[in-house]
Amino acid sequence: MPPQEKISATGGESALGDISSKDTSPDGLSASASSEAGFPAAKSGCKSDDQENDPEQPKDMDFDDLLPHIGEFGTYQRILFVLMIPFAFFVAWVYFSQIFITLVPEKHWCRVPELENFTVEERKALAIPVDEDGYSKCTMYDVNYTEIILNGIRDADPSWPTKGCSHGWEFNFTDIPYETVATELEWVCENSALPTAAQSVFFVGAIFGGLIFGWIADRYGRIPALVGANVTGFLAGVATVLANSFWEFALCRFFVGFAFDNCFTMMYILVLEYVGPKWRTFVANMSIALFFTFAACVLPWIAYFLADWRMTCIAISVPLVLAVAAPWLVPESARWLVSQGRVEKAIEILGKFERMNGTKVPDNVYQQFRETCARVCKEQEADKTYSVVDLFRSPRLRNVTILLIVI
Asked: What residue stretches are annotated with the Major facilitator superfamily (MFS) profile domain (predicted)?
């Protein structure tokens, strides 16, 4: 897929496309695709009908046309590229953390209080039936162990009746050297599906989070959505350590999922927006290949050395609060500002890029950009207002939308 057509999963906007392919106009009207509004893509070479009929009319100045003037991958863009690192770590840790906090050791068996003074092997030999996979994980002999001990019996009789574990389970923590929420709450045997159910709740939260934070990004800007997503992930992640039941844990995971993806995607879109077309593929791929992958590789070692599922949750959740510094470090989306009619604010931000990169944009280029923005906004004022509901009006669009949500 060409870089100009890359689509944001959360906001529905092309991070690399035209100036206002999805945002709302100053009047709150939904903007149509800029190519339909006479606002061509930087590389497409397209012209509006008026331009084709009137060769003397000034050429549209797309946002991408400005990037070569401020520097396609100058000092400021490189700083933003580095600032992606913590956000890539956040999303990797949020995504993979449940694997390490819901692990269940392969070897576990019924707890028998009467045999607690015996060794592990003696307890298993006397109380746990043997099947084709070894000692049973979910059943125990239904006998009077006090009487058996007094009679000096140390080996079970396979003909003894069996029952389910009535006093909980014991776990062998040799392979997984720490207790997890699954072992603490004993999500095994008939409850073995609960970790998977919690993960499903996580992704349900991600669906709603994408819709809500996408709306916030369109209505209030990318920076508020970025900060909101990370703060939500921080609060829900820390709250997870207080969970004492499946439903409490699932509720926390819902809100962690609510923040998932948006923790990073908003920053990802912002950085790609300010990087020139020639460098976008590099930045887009390397941010995932380097930052996300490295974070995913580090997470198992964090879980291993902390050896406590609660401490692991805290360790990977607290850093998300650093996102509150984003408004002072990361510029707001210039494309979003333009879509809101705040062209001068967008140009002010581009001026920071000029100063950091040591470049200078000619005044006539900015003036041409202003005129193009004014013309596009004027044309969009007559456009029909759209909402999320319109995604479900026609059968074809409804089917595509549902498939994208499910997949």
From this structure: 81-407
pLDDT of residue 396: 82
Q: What is the CATH number of the domain that holds 303?
A: 1.20.1250.20
Report the alpha-carbon distance of residue 339 to residue 321 in Å, rounded: 29
pLDDT at 394: 81
- Other Cβ atoms less than 10 A from the Cβ of 185: the count is 18
Residue 43 belongs to some domain of the structure: no
Residues of the chain under the 70 pLDDT cut: 1-59, 380-386
Whole-number pLDDT of residue 35: 36
| pTM for this prediction | 0.75
Who contacts 203 (Cβ-Cβ below 8 Å, separation ≥6)? 257
Give the contacts of 280 (CB within 8 A, at least 6 positions apart).
Answer: 3, 6, 16, 272
Residue 393 lies in a domain: no
Q: Which two tokens stand for residue 260?
A: 């998932």
Instruction: State which residues form the domain around 155.
Output: 108-172
Q: Are residues 100 and 112 in the same domain?
A: no
